[in-house]
Amino acid sequence: MFTNGVLCVDCFGCACLKLAFGGGEVEGLRRLAGGGCLKFLGYIVDLDSGEICDSLSETGDVSKAEFELLQVLLEHYAKSEPTEERGKLVKFANLPGGHAYEKAFLERAVRPIAATFGDRPEKIVACAWRLGGQELTFGDCSVEIPALPHLPLTFIAWRRGDFPAEANILFDETASKYLPTEDLAVLGELATARLLRASEH
Questions:
Q1: Which terminus of the chain is more solvent-facing, meaning fewer CB atoms within 10 Å of its CB: N or C?
Q2: 159 and 67 part of one domain
Q3: CB of 158 within 8 A of CB of 108?
Q4: CB distance 86 to 171 below 8 Å
Q5: How distant, in Å, are the alpha carbons of 21, 122, 134, 137, 148 from that of 141?
Q6: Are residues 49 and 147 in the same domain?
Q7: 10: left (phi over 0), alpha (psi -120 to 50) or beta
Q8: How many of the other CB atoms lie within 10 Å of CB of 118?
């Protein structure tokens, strides 16, 4: 069982980072994922070995910065219990303590969506599909993306026209049962970064 992050060298001599979890964290992640493989935002994590693959990368490699972020995020997520989604969407500001992080969240997670998809909001659908998402009917274009199992994010984009392009990211009301608001801000930023990464291909 893993207790610390490790740098391994595979049989081809290539260095690869492996996520590391304690026994309770592995069981928690298995429970949330419904098995031994955790898939989210284009990442695939083998919970037995800790190996992580990036399906959006030609090499499948994950950067050190991504690795460190995912290690902490998943450790926190592993402590939660599956909860039935309520279907009620809330803005980031309406999450517990969300007002404290709202300005940074809008700048880092929401505005890049408007900037990238403002001219062609329909492009967000194909990008979301690569992350396991589905199209919705809000705004000029919208999608729901499973940022983590049981923790969907709804992205809404409005086309640039007489007014500047706009966007929003909404959470299911149950999101706070999985992660604290500070971590949900990080998850939103990560989901946006992954959407933008998918738009490059």
A1: C
A2: no
A3: no
A4: no
A5: 38, 6, 11, 7, 22
A6: no
A7: beta
A8: 18
83 within some domain: no
DSSP alpha helices (H): ranges in the chain? 23-33, 64-77, 98-105, 111-117, 123-130, 181-199
At a CB cut-off of 8 Å and minimum separation 6, what does 43 contact?
Answer: 52, 53, 54, 55, 62, 70
Residue type, 95: L
pTM, two decimals, is: 0.89
Same domain, 35 and 127: no
Q: In the block, which residue shows the tokens 């492009």?
A: 123
Tell me how many domains the chain contains.
2
User: Which residue do the tokens 């959470």 mark?
Assistant: 171
SS3 for 147?
strand
Residue ranges making up the domain that contains 181: 89-199
- Looking at the domain assignment, is residue 82 inside a domain? no
pLDDT means per 10 residues in the chain (201 residues)?
Answer: 39 56 94 96 95 92 92 97 91 96 96 95 95 96 97 96 92 97 98 95 71
Nearest to 190 by CA among 62, 25, 50, 24: 62
Q: State both tokens at 193.
A: 């970064």
